[in-house]
Amino acid sequence: MLFLRASSSRAAIPSRYLLANRLASTGLGQKRFYTLAQHKSDRHQLSFVRGTSVQVGTGQLVEDSIGTYWDRLIDRHGDRLGVVVKHENNLHWSFRQFGEQVDSLCRGLYESGLRKGDRLAVWMPNNSAWPTLQYATAKSGIVLVTLNPAYRKQELLQTLSLVECKSLVFVPSLKSSNFSQMLLELLPEIEHQSPNQLLTANLPSLRQLIVFDNETDVPETARIKGATKYQDLLIKNPSPTIDEHLQKERQGITNRDIINLQFTSGTTGLP
Description:
Layout: H1 20-26, H2 36-39, H3 66-77, E1 81-85, E2 91-94, H4 95-111, E3 119-123, H5 129-140, E4 143-146, H6 153-162, E5 167-170, E6 173-174, E7 177-178, H7 179-186, E8 208-211, E9 227-229, H8 230-233, H9 240-250, E10 260-262
Parallel strand pairs: 3-4, 3-5, 4-10, 5-8, 8-9
Antiparallel strand pairs: 1-2, 6-7
Helix pairs in contact: 3-5, 4-5
InterPro entries: AMP-dep_synth/lig_dom
Protein name: Fatty-acid-CoA ligase
Domain AMP-dependent synthetase/ligase: 76-271
């Protein structure tokens, strides 16, 4: 399965980093905390090696955003095998089919009200929705928040509150963990509220719950009225207006925009 693990929207990241000066200036082993405003300063924008051929081959570093570079790759390699998920009825997608899924999800996220800079959390194991969400959010300027599937209620509440997530994608359960039940206990209001119009006391920023069930195919929306089925979010035959709006949104996305936030496991303390 194809996955992207990156903390910024740069399409190609060199393997070498300028660490020596940073360690010398901050003190080896010294713990530092930064606000978002401080992170955006020049000091924290110089982590990439500057130069023309820092990787094998010739040519310049790729300065495209991930969404732009991804579209070019599909044009070049669309017929090649892109995604295989054996536990989903041996699912096989070419890169072009994968790209169509990504674009369908981009439209659905836009229609649901998510915009550039909003945070969408993922609480589930490996499946076909995972890489689709990563590329769709990167193309849309939405920040993907990756949650450990082993999180319990306290860790979940901590992480979603800390980054003010607007949307959460989850599976009903995993092994002995019943995600749906934990959500109902944390957010009892969602049992009766309408999708995309959530308002909860414990998570005031949360507006949307999306459930992906690739095993039982039993919609959890029967239990959680405020949840939307992942498949219902995909828009495969859009109106021209949606794609026009999306194109305008993407014009403001650069390779400096944050595409995901990765929390610690929470094994030795709160994430």
